[in-house]
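Good morning,

Both structures are done.
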Amino acid sequence: MKKNYIALLFFLLLTTPAAGETRDINLAYKIYVGGFHVIDLRAEIGLAPEKYDFAVKVKTSGMIGSLFPWWMKAYSRGDIGKEQVKPVAAGQQNNWRGKGRFIDLKFKDGVAIIDRILPKPETDNRDRVSKEMRTGVVDLTSAIISVIRRMDGTGDCEAHYPVFDGRRRYDLVIEAAGSEWLKPSGYTPFVGDTVNCKLSIDKKAGFKRKDESGWNNGRRTAKVWMGKAFDGVPPVPIRLTLKTPLGDLIAHLSAASIEKDGLKKRLRDIASANPKEN
């Protein structure tokens, strides 16, 4: 399994910007490849009026988890202004069969600075990304937060952002892909309208010089269904699909809850109270 690509893909899944007051949102996803449940992903998101604080845990599950143990923890923190999102710090650590990797980034004066990294790019079959190419960039979470803010205001997900993840420099390209009403299913408690977007990346620098896995051939595109799980909160990813060398990958929002003023609401409670027939 190309764990780095999956990490990138699902790090962008779970980002929600602040929405006027302090709230805590919990999201859980089940990820399937070739029809098999292979990964569980959980996120805890603290929302404040002008800040975001994001943390996610991902791990392989079931038989796949026993045969191919892998986990990842990621974080991102930043400020939300009227005009733009400004990252402050971001990073992740992961472990593949007992072998650890980590990245910590800081952002200062518009430049992404590598605070610490293992392995170093020159020992990982890739080149370092120059300071020039790290200037004016954001981390992946900050880019997605910017897109979601745009969607919440205009309903439009068209966007293009320069991203640096600590190893790779690429442009995140997001295009509109229509809308859809999602029916009840056994995969997610969400039922309702979604705005759909296509996600792809344009590689710039820092990618592996030699990669025979097949994951990095061509321009791979994912489709994301975005929907409002709760009133007063911007849209979150409900479903994601991607074709991979291992088969079709699909992620479903399997659970969600929001806590405000000591009261907790769960998505299944909202969904069951608001049925809609086609």
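Second structure follows.
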Amino acid sequence: MSFTPTTHNASYEAISATNPSISAAGKVVLITGAESGIGNAASFSFATAGAKALILLGRRVELLEQVAKSIHEKGLDTETACFAVDVCDEQGVKSTLNQIVSKFGRIDIVIHAAGALPPLGPLATVPLDDLWRAFEVNIKGFLTLAQAMLAVTTSGQEGASQPVLIVLNTAGSIMPPLPGMGGYVASKMSSLKLAEYLASENKNKLRVISVHPGLIQTPMAEELEKAGLRFPYDDISLPSDFLVWAASQEAAFLNGKFVFANWDVEELKASAGKIEGDADLSLMLRGL
């Protein structure tokens, strides 16, 4: 399933964090779920791309501090700050973003990589409390972050100065049902539609993009394997660098859209006018 004829399984020149045309120089970047997986890898990509500051959010500050230490040990010249906060804690998230803006003046880019996988199994028997907690993280957590971001964002910013919010989603949101995945996919499908509405309601204030990161071997993927769901994996450099590109001005035409990190960005850019002008890459009902 691909919108572009060409697909990728690892980073390439057009999205490389070292590509000067998508530089994050001077940008203040906030990444949730930065302790591990894609959020962790994205931290290094944005540091490589020259971000002025990296704000790492997660549940365990000691793990975030290890990420920050590794970034500095690689000689990457970016300031880091770590905050332990639950993305569902409305007051905690608001307070954290206010602290960030107080220190750095603004937030340019938010990468929302935090997410939760409920127990896998038929909806008839899945523990409802565990399922609902995943809904809270994947839906309430995303909206909590979006509201806090909008509260510290000045209206009327356009072009390169307009802040960007990117949320990781799943291809399962638009595919036929996978056994045992109903709860997770339903929660992510809801966040996908929320992203479309946030983009539509805040066109002059915030750019919002949903990204399927590819199939990456992360702790969440390990849980899928335990349930018997195995996939051919992409290299984690693919989503981590794709996020740098998606946050750049080159991807401004994707506001409100859902894209796969596997898709070729040069071919996406060639279709920019068509993508902006119609319902392509939006959540719709086939057959109407």
